Amino acid sequence: MNRQIELDGIMKHAGNISVEDLFEPLTYSVEPFISPEYAQAERDLLWPKMWQMAGRVEEIPEVGNYFTYDICEDSIIVVRNAPGSIKAFHNVCSHRGRRLIDTPAGCNNASGANGRFICGFHGWTYDLNGKNIYIHEELDWKGGLTAEHTCLSEVRVDTWGGWIYINMDPDCVSLREFLEPAASILDPFEFEKMRYKWRQWVIFDCNWKTALEAFMEPYHVAGTHTQMLNHGDYYAYSEAYGLHGVSGFDQRDPELQMKQSSTITRAGKGKDPRISTYELQNEIYTTVNNASTTETLVNAAKRLVDELPEGTPADQVIKHWLASARADDAARGVIWPTITPEQMAKAGLAWHIFPNMSVLQGISFALCYRTRPYGDNPNKCIFESYAMERFPQGEEPKTEWVYAEPTAEAWGLVLSQDFSNMAALQKGMHSRGFRGTLPNPHQEQKVTNFHRNLANIIGAGSLRLLNK
Ligand code: FES
Ligand SMILES: [Fe+2]
């Protein structure tokens, strides 16, 4: 009750905003980014109730493999307890509450391989099903301890697309229901067959939403990544799908809309699509840290000038390019799924999966982001990004989470440009001269839908139509 009163106090623009309203000019307030009270409300009302991506199935291939996922004050152990089965537990010993597995200093999580979990304080021990199997001097309890007293607290866990999700709310909806309609639209990409190519993390001086939203719209390309305008146009649409949202490339001209792809695999800008397709792919590969496309796609694009006559229209160039890249990959044992042009178009360019995950997908790759609050500080977050690809079986690279300073050397030029906005945006939102956000109604709906959903979950609105 007190919390609600507090929240009402910090929300200047309480009100109901519908999905249709997102097409209109509107504003959302900055409290969700800068208010400590709002961060506490997220800790209490958001994180304990939402499905969250904790990691990937391939991180725990063998029985006993585990990793932890920390969110605010909670920590969850995700473990392969048996072949074909995964369990999740609160990372806390049932004796006196010591965290069972410590996160090593300088790491974003803990990981390892155990047959059992032994508490470092008094040695209580748990098997992979969370059952207590050893209590030092148990006779002292005079038979008063039951298995229910002493087991680990279980957390709901499920998988989609090779991602492992956890939910601390025993009464939550199923993962599938939570992810729809995004899951069905993205299923054709078979993310479960992709594997990590690299994974890196860093701490930013901004809210977790500030960092995540930097990857929700291509509207910023013209301002942040000006060099990218040489090889592509970045006009985009953005669309709400329930809790989630998508963006994709768009054209104001309906004629062009039919010809250009809304996805990352497109012809690029220039007179000769055989050349522009290669230039765009090559630029992406070299400036987005070898992600957002693959070596196979870049190499197949490079051959277009030799394989196709001058004057081949853009849609034919794309068709030929993707067919030859598909064949090149098949020859090395990487089989692409069949995705119809309609499915491809509907999937667009990149998704926000509520609350804290972003996926930019391609038929044989994905570039993903996850952000989390850093303690209870609304001005700091943990930022993680990873690239995935389809690899020939047995040739998947061995990867781990690597801390990487936010430089162009470590992350590529494009991501370092995105990073340069993080702290500056956070600082700007604290300015007493900032009159409030003015998001683009066509291109930034993913962001406004995010705030619409947050406002509903936190229980107070933070959006307002500008002209009403
Ligand atoms: S707190 Fe874990 S054994 Fe005592
Ligand atoms: Fe960017």
Q: What topology does this entry show?
A:
Layout (H helix, E strand, L loop, with lengths): L1 H9 L15 E3 L2 H4 L1 H11 L5 E5 L8 E7 L2 E9 L2 E6 L20 E3 L2 E3 L6 E3 L4 E3 L12 H4 L3 E7 L2 E5 L7 H5 L2 H5 L8 E10 L3 H6 L7 H4 L11 E6 L2 E6 L4 H6 L13 H15 L7 H8 L1 H4 L6 H18 L9 H7 L2 E4 L3 E5 L3 E10 L2 E13 L12 E2 L4 H4 L1 H17 L15 H14 L4 E3 L3
Parallel strand pairs: 12-19
Antiparallel strand pairs: 1-20, 2-11, 3-4, 3-6, 4-5, 5-10, 7-8, 8-9, 10-11, 12-18, 13-14, 14-15, 15-16, 16-17, 17-18
Bound molecules: FE2/S2 (inorganic) cluster and fe (ii) ion (FE2).
- Gross geometry: globular
| Extended strand count | 20
The number of distinct helices, counting runs of at least 4 residues, comes to 17
The termini sit apart by: 30 Å
Bound molecules: FE2/S2 (inorganic) cluster, fe (ii) ion
Largest sheet: 8 strands, mixed
Q: In order across it, which strands form the biggest sheet?
A: 13-14-15-16-17-18-12-19
Summing up helix and strand content along with how strands pair, one would put the structural category as: alpha+beta
Which stretches of 5+ consecutive residues score pLDDT under 50?
Answer: 1-14
The CATH topology annotation of the largest domain reads as: Naphthalene 1,2-dioxygenase Alpha Subunit, Chain A, domain 1
The structural domain count equals 2
Q: What is the residue-mean pLDDT, rounded to a whole number?
A: 92
Strand content: 15-25%
Class of the largest domain in CATH? Alpha Beta
The percentage helix is 25-40%
Radius of gyration: 24 Å
CATH architecture of the largest domain: Alpha-Beta Complex
